[in-house]
Amino acid sequence: MNSATLVREILFCIVFLIVSVKSWAESSIPIIPSYLPNSCIVDANDPYEPNVKMDHGPLKGLCVIPVSRRSVKILEVQESRLYFPPAAGKVVVANFSHLNKFWIAQIPVQQVKNLILQIQYFPVLSFPKIDIAHTQFLFEFEEGAEILLLPQIKNPSAPSPIKLNRMIFSVENIGPYGELFDAFKGLKGHYNLAYRAVSLSDKYKWMVEEFGNVVEQKQVKLQAAQVRSVLLESLRRATEWSTRREYNTLRVNCVSEQFSILDQVLNIKGLPKPFIPNLAIQALWARDLLDMKVKIPSLNESYDGQP
C-alpha cells in the first residue's frame, strides 16, 4: 500500500467515525412488531423467518428485528420440492426480498454470467466534497434465464411465479427495533450482519428514488464459472450465518465481506481487504479484477425500470 492510499484510508476512516450517519440502515422505522411468545418470530405462517437474539454487546438478549431485512437461506432438496420441482443447475432459497416482502426463489446459478460491483454514495459534506458509501454485488444472468419467485408461506399453492433476470447481494447491518445506523455504535456490538438477496427494482427505489444517491457500477473481470462460484459462496455464507454474525464498522462490514468472498473464491492471498467502501474500486484494481474495457453508466442513468 503506497503512502497516498494509506493517507486516503486514514482520512476516510476519520470522517466515517466523526460523521454519525443515522438513517441509511432503514429508510423508515417499521411498526414495533408483536413477537410470538418466547421467541423473536412475528409471522407464524412464515416458515423461514429467523428467530435470532443478539448474543453480544450492550443489546444482548434483544430480538434481531426480522420484518425488513434477513439473510437469504439455501433450502435443502426436500424443502425446496414444496415450491419447485428439482432442476439441474438451479438453487432454491428462502428470504429473497422483492416488493418489500420475502419470497422463495429458484435461482439459475449455472446461467449467471456477469458480476458488477455497485457503489452507492451518501453525500456527507458539500465542501470539501466528502461522501461515504455502501457496496454490493449485482449478478446478471444469461438471456432467457430467470429467477422465479413464489410466496413464502407454509402451505404453498401453485401461483404463477414472478420472474426476474438479475439480483443484488448486499451485506448490511441489522439490529433490534429502533437501532438506526450509527458508525460509533457499529464499533460496540450494536448490530449483526444480514446477507441479503434483493431484487434490483427494490434497491433502485430505495437508493435512487427515495434517497437520490448516485450508484456507480464497475464490471468485475471474471469468467462465467468464477461468477458462479462467487454467487454460490455468497449464498453459502448467508445460509451459514443467517443474521447471527456481529457487524463492525471497520472490520466486518459490507465491503470487507464482499472482498472476503472474492478472495476466497479466487484464492487471492496477501492483499488487504478494504474496510471502507469508498476504496472498493482501488481494491478491484489491486487484484486485477477491474475490467477497464467495459464502461458501465451509473445505475441512475442505465436502469431500465424492470425488476
What topology does this entry show?
Elements: H1 3-18, E1 73-74, H2 77-80, E2 91-98, E3 101-107, E4 112-126, E5 129-141, E6 147-151, E7 162-164, E8 166-174, E9 192-198, H3 200-210, E10 214-219, H4 224-241, H5 254-266, H6 280-286, H7 299-302
Parallel strand pairs: 2-9
Antiparallel strand pairs: 1-2, 2-3, 3-6, 4-5, 4-10, 5-8, 6-7, 8-9
Helix pairs in contact: 4-5
Radius of gyration over all CA atoms, rounded: 19 Å
- Name the average pLDDT: 90
Q: State the major sheet.
A: 10 strands, mixed
Number of domains: 1
Overall strand count: 10
Tally of DSSP helical segments:
7
One letter per element, helices H and strands E, the order comes to HEHEEEEEEEEHEHHHH
User: Which structural class should the secondary elements be placed in?
Assistant: alpha+beta
Outline the low-pLDDT stretches: 20-29
CA(first)-CA(last) distance: 40 Å
Share of residues in strands: 15-25%
Q: What sort of overall outline do the alpha carbons produce when their principal axes are compared? A: globular
How would you characterize this protein structure?
By secondary structure, this protein is α+β, with helices and mostly antiparallel strands. The protein has one domain. The chain has seven helices and ten strands. Strands 1, 2, 3, 4, 5, 6, 7, 8, 9 and 10 form a ten-stranded mixed β-sheet that branches. The protein is globular. It starts with a helix and ends in a 5-residue tail after the last helix. The model is unreliable at about 20-30 (pLDDT under 50).
Outline of this structure?
By secondary structure, the chain is of the alpha+beta class. The protein is built from seven helices and ten strands.
